[in-house]
Amino acid sequence: MTSIGTGYDLSNSVFSPDGRNFQVEYAAKAVENGGTAIGIRCEGGVVLAVEKIITSKLLKPDANKRIATVDRHVGIVSAGLVPDGRHFVSRARDEAASWRSVYKGPIPVSALSNRLGSYVQAYTLYSSVRPFGVTAIVGGWDSEAELAVDGQVGSGPKLGSGGKVDGAKAGGPGLYMIEPSGLYWGYHGAATGKGRQAAKAELEKLDLSSGNLSLIDAVKEAARIIYVAHEDSKDKEFELEMSWVSSLDGPTHGRHEEVPRQLLEEAEKAAKKALEGEDDDEEEEQEETKDSGNSGERMEE
Amino acid sequence: MNHYPEIWGRPRDDIYGPYNSSYLQTTGPKTYTQSPAVTGTSVIAVKFNGGVAIVADNLASYGSLARFTDVKRLRVFSDSAVIGFSGDVSDMQYIHRLLGSIDIRENYSTHGNMLNAKNLHTYLSKVLYKRRSEFNPLWNHLLVAGFDEDKNPFLSSADLLGTTYSAPHLATGFGAHLAIPILRRLFPEEKPLEEITKEHAEAALRECLKVLWYRDARSLDKYSMAVITAEGIELKEDQVIGAQSWAFAESIKGYGAQIN
């Protein structure tokens, strides 16, 4: 960090001699303080979850939503500066509407992420603006069935639309994470915010690329991971917000919706139980090591 | 200075030459759509005890040509209302897309889309009135069917001028002349809505469609029917009017070439 304090971190869009853009890196730091947000992509759909730290007892429980819907089939959750996240969502909605006005259909999740990536990146280029203080997770479902064109009058040709490749797979779940630099990748599981390290470790254990996790299990895992990620800031109370989008024949019929109350409560209960179970195991282990006589240093590692 | 005020302040012809008047507008005022192009004919709807039934045939005519025969003129809005469109089909497409974008925006709130048929009718009538005030009307006559905020059956009309009116049974286009008298006979004003069942309403609408098929040269025997009740919307888009016969035409006297 030789360039810090030498003036290269004061203006946006200015490179330091060693090729870094400090304002963008500071924006990423702002994200690291935000409540943990995660996304899980599985065969049957996508689950989004966020840890909302309760900053005041006067806030109305269950209000102040942090996961937003874009079009009908996409959800966005972000960690970092909440107002920046709101503006980001607003832009996403405009992009989805603009796509519809041109193509008369829903925007694919990949195309939306691409446009949002470009938008965020533009905020790293000018000294008159600051980068986005959010890392956003975009999850959605592209319809696997052939959709009617918006406003379609008749049923169209019996053959359906042209230009199709036989046997090509169409639609499916999409999960992308967009960082303050404008960088975005597609993920099986994504995590950002304060507890991202713990959350990533848990996501990796799920073996998401094998495609064995069901959507309902993904909801439960998402709740558990948020609870695990919260362990480090246990003194603060938090609220769990979750949403999902499933396949057309799944529970949400390709739409992005809040996870139903009953399922959310079930998942939270299971998450708390799993955590208590872990604590018990740890205590047992501690006792065992004490018995064997060589405790101390090894445990603290 | 001369005595011709219209020439004052203009470049003088003797210095600059005559003004090239081909730049002047010669075609009269700017105009938008003067008549619809591809059109749908009547829509008919009836309130019954616990809901509303609405029908329209599946035809879009290009002038007198029966151009498209699988056109869906009944549009469902967010599981809460059905809109029947007569008039211009491209304007129907525009309105449908407009309503789609409203549904998407409404669903961004935690409560979801809470607009009922009555709200929708108010909104549409204002869209239509705005457009007619810009001399660029949306060339449609709409029937909006669904429920109002008190969960009572709702049926109302809005036309290309933004005019609105409501009645227990409504029809647009030719139906306003041919179907309304039938419906008034079947469901007179003194008959309470509670006595009209869903089956009565459906049968009456089919009867009206049949009369329209005989008498309206822009109609088709394939039609769609939507029934809106508290349970939801039941939309059937491939119905057929059966058992027609032109045999009665043999006995009509007084028109066309006749032998005796």
From TrEMBL, chain A:
It holds the Pfam family Proteasome_A_N. The keyword Hydrolase applies. Residues 252-276 have a biased composition (Basic and acidic residues). Keywords: Hydrolase, Proteasome. Residues 8-30 form the Proteasome alpha-type subunits domain. Residues 277-288 have a biased composition (Acidic residues). InterPro entries: Ntn_hydrolases_N (IPR029055), Proteasome_alpha (IPR050115), Proteasome_alpha-type (IPR023332), Proteasome_asu_N (IPR000426), Proteasome_sua/b (IPR001353). It comes from the Eukaryota. GO terms for molecular function: hydrolase activity. One of its GO terms (cellular component) is proteasome core complex, alpha-subunit complex. One of its GO terms (biological process) is ubiquitin-dependent protein catabolic process. Residues 247-301 are annotated as: Disordered. Belongs to the peptidase T1A family. PANTHER family: PROTEASOME SUBUNIT ALPHA/BETA. This is N-terminal nucleophile aminohydrolase. The lineage of its organism: Eukaryota, Fungi, Dikarya, Ascomycota, Pezizomycotina.
UniProtKB/TrEMBL annotation, chain B:
InterPro entries: Ntn_hydrolases_N, Proteasome_beta4, Proteasome_sua/b, Proteasome_suB-type. It is found in: Cytoplasm; Nucleus. The keyword Protein transport does not apply. One of its GO terms (cellular component) is proteasome core complex, beta-subunit complex. Pfam families: Proteasome. One of its GO terms (biological process) is proteolysis involved in protein catabolic process. It comes from the Eukaryota. This is Proteasome subunit beta. Keywords: Cytoplasm, Hydrolase, Nucleus, Proteasome. Belongs to the peptidase T1B family. GO terms for molecular function: hydrolase activity. Non-catalytic component of the proteasome.
